[in-house]
Amino acid sequence: MAEQGSPGRGSTVDAVVGMRRAQASAFVRRAGPGLALSAVVAIASVLAEPLTARLIGLATGRPIAIPAVVIALLIGMAMHAFAAQPRFELGMVFAVKKLLRVAIALLGLRIALGDIVALGAGTVFVVIAAMALTIGSGLLFARLLRCDDSYGALSGAATAVCGASAALATATVLPQTQNKDADTVFTVVAVNALSTVAMVAYPALGPVLGYDDRTLGILLGATIHDVAQVVGAGYSVSETAGNSAVIVKLFRVFLLLPVVVGVGWWFAGRGGGAQNAKVPVPLFAIVFLALVLLNSTGLVPGPVKTAVGEVSRWGLLIAIAALGLGTSVTAILKVGWRHVAVVCGTTLVILVAAIAGLAITH
After folding, report:
1. By residue range, what is the domain housing residue 349?
2. Residue 236: which residues within 8 A CB-CB, separation 6 or more?
3. Torsions phi, psi of 84, nearest 5?
4. Which helix (H) or strand (E) holds 240?
5. Among the residues of 267-336, which ranges form H helices?
6. Is 267:283 a contact under the CB 8 Å cutoff?
7. First vs last Cα of the chain: how many Å apart?
8. What is the value of pTM for the model shown?
9. How many domains does the chain have?
10. Cα–chain-centroid distance for residue 142?
11. pLDDT in tens, 285-323
12. How far is residue 148's CA from residue 141's CA, in Å, rounded to a whole number?
């Protein structure tokens, strides 16, 4: 009986393996062009980084390199018209949605638990207070500018928590209105654009405000909307700033669930509801913390950390290149000024609130 059953089980296993291989092959064929284009932009940015230092040195006498993450973003945005083809879409989406999270999770091996504890209770207070003020300001600005309250909640939550992911999660608990889908799409585009501007501009605030790299990292992590741009901004300054920025940003990501549930309760009487919330579990953040704990034990060999660090670095560069390739400046300029004003207002509120909070606590 056993001998008769074995071929059947073997055939089943072979069929499953064959199906998985076929699926993997199909995914590579479909996602390959977009990933390859993003990788080419990432490689070009690394090659261009020392060149920018030389050019700036010739112009100013100070050879300051433009960070590769910024170059990758700018090259990607310049190539958006070419990249806006169906054959590139899946690979670019995969890079921004999946590869980015893997790369961020691997950053955990660069941070020890002591680094997190060193941020202190003051940083936690600053982050939570700034987030609360931002969400409230979104509702206030929406009413003052005669936009729907639901759009104010979308803008406030997206700005306060984690950009596009927060906007999509918050939309699940809002009442269904005529403009809900359009408002959600615009919020996703707007926070992405503003995060891109912040990624390039905010690092310059460090010398102006007299911050050291650690404090500047806290500001970047507490104020920039999307995770990708936080990573880009932080590590364009230094590893210390990048580590602080990522830790603070992931703390904001962990607050996504209470924010979305709270918004759902607020709108419960108007067709929304906390019971409708569909909040994605931030698995990459959980893996990040697990690797932080592992790194804190001192058991991870140095060569392993170096290798993982390189994988993470290139993953981040490819993801940010894909982010730039998918960013259309033209599409952003077509939206009404009131919607733009609301999301710009919430962006300004979280920046001012964080700066004020850091002045008090640091």
Report:
1. 2-361
2. 67, 69, 70, 199, 203, 242
3. -80, 60
4. helix 239-254
5. 283-296, 302-325, 329-332
6. no
7. 74
8. 0.71
9. 1
10. 25
11. 788 888 888 988 988 998 999 999 899 889 989 988 998
12. 10
